[in-house]
Amino acid sequence: MQFQQTLKRPIACQGIGIHGGRPAHVIIKPAPANSGILFVRTDLPGSPVIPARSSRVVDSSLATTLGNDQAYVSTVEHLLAALAGLQIDNARIEVAGPEVPILDGSAGPFAALLQKAGIKTLRWPRAFFLLQRPLEIIDGDKYIRVEPAPAIKFTYSIDFPHPKIGCQKLTFVPRAKAFCREIAPARTFGFLHEVQRLQANGLALGGSLENAIVLDTTGVLNPEGLRFPDEFVRHKMLDLIGDLALLGWPLVGHLQVHKGSHALHQKFMETLLQQQDAWRLWIPETQPAWRPTLPVPQPLRLRTAMA
Predict the structure, then answer these.
(1) Mean pLDDT in the chain?
(2) 57 and 188, same structural domain?
(3) Range of the structural domain that residue 79 is part of
(4) How far apart are the C-alpha atoms of 242 and 226, rounded to whole Å?
(5) pLDDT tens digits along 107-158
(6) What is the domain-level CATH number for residue 77?
(7) Which of 151, 220, 239, 252 has the highest CB neighbour count under 10 A?
(8) Helix/strand/coil (H, E, C) string of the chain?
């Protein structure tokens, strides 16, 4: 039996919002079983609450932004990745502003803070989305597909026409220690000409070499270089883990992503939740164990037009 988890005590951090360039402050607090992850805008009247669910995504162009008719909070994916990577199911995140701080551009500082707070096991079982048949979405040369498997596994591949990136591929089996060591430290990245264009349009105002890998046409501008030779695909894996946390429960299956984005991740989650015959909720040891069914059906193929 796997039990749900939360924090032992509250933990706080502050920094700058990468897009608005303004100070950002969060307090992450314990929450009861079955609460899920909740964002609370404490700087607004009534402290509106925004559940961390894919149905609450209001923008996925530059980052993942959650919102409702009262408030929004953006750049949530790195904090969500740290929570999911450490298998923390329930937390109340009080945000004093419209953005989660970017810190160093990775999930590493968040993971360290959560470990410092300590993790508490709750006497309530964790559920899973158990995949029943393959599912696939395609957008040109980009795709996400997932197939039934007895465990959770992610494979991510990217292809950028840049001498420091090129084709990179990574497979990761989620484990808390492996996440903190291999995925959490990977920083977000961008190209100098894109950063300059965004800043000219009032975006990415908090972006710098202290919180992102920045590349010009030939190399990496950060004087310290890369943390991993394949740090770029590792950060895409980080973003995937953070975005998938919006499902509410882990997805048991082999998920493969090629040239993904926040928008494609969101489209996949929407499609998965709509195709209710493709999965069932499962609590280990309270229901029959997973067994593959033969023959394996062909995946559902949905072509999408992503902006």
Answers:
(1) 92
(2) no
(3) 3-125
(4) 22
(5) 999 999 999 999 999 999 999 999 999 999 999 999 999 999 999 999 999 9
(6) 3.30.230.20
(7) 239
(8) CCEEEEECCCEEEEEECCCCCCEEEEEEECCCCCCCEEEEECCCCCCCEEECCHHHEEECCCCCEEECCCCEEECCHHHHHHHHHCCCCCEEEEECCCECCCCCCCCHHHHHHHHHHCEEEEEEECCEEEECCCEEEEECCEEEEEECCCCCEEEEEEEECCCCCEEEEEEECCCHHHHHHHHCCCCCEEEHHHHHHHHHCCCCCCCCCCCCEEECCCCECCCCCCCCCCHHHHHHHHHHHHHHHHHCCCEECEEEEECCCHHHHHHHHHHHHHCHHHEEEECECCECCCCCCCCCCCCEEEECCCC
Instruction: Please check whether residues 175 and 121 belong to one and the same domain.
Output: no
- Catalytic one of 78, 235, 262, 265: 262
> 180 is written with which tokens?
């903190």
Which position has the token pair 């300059």? 196
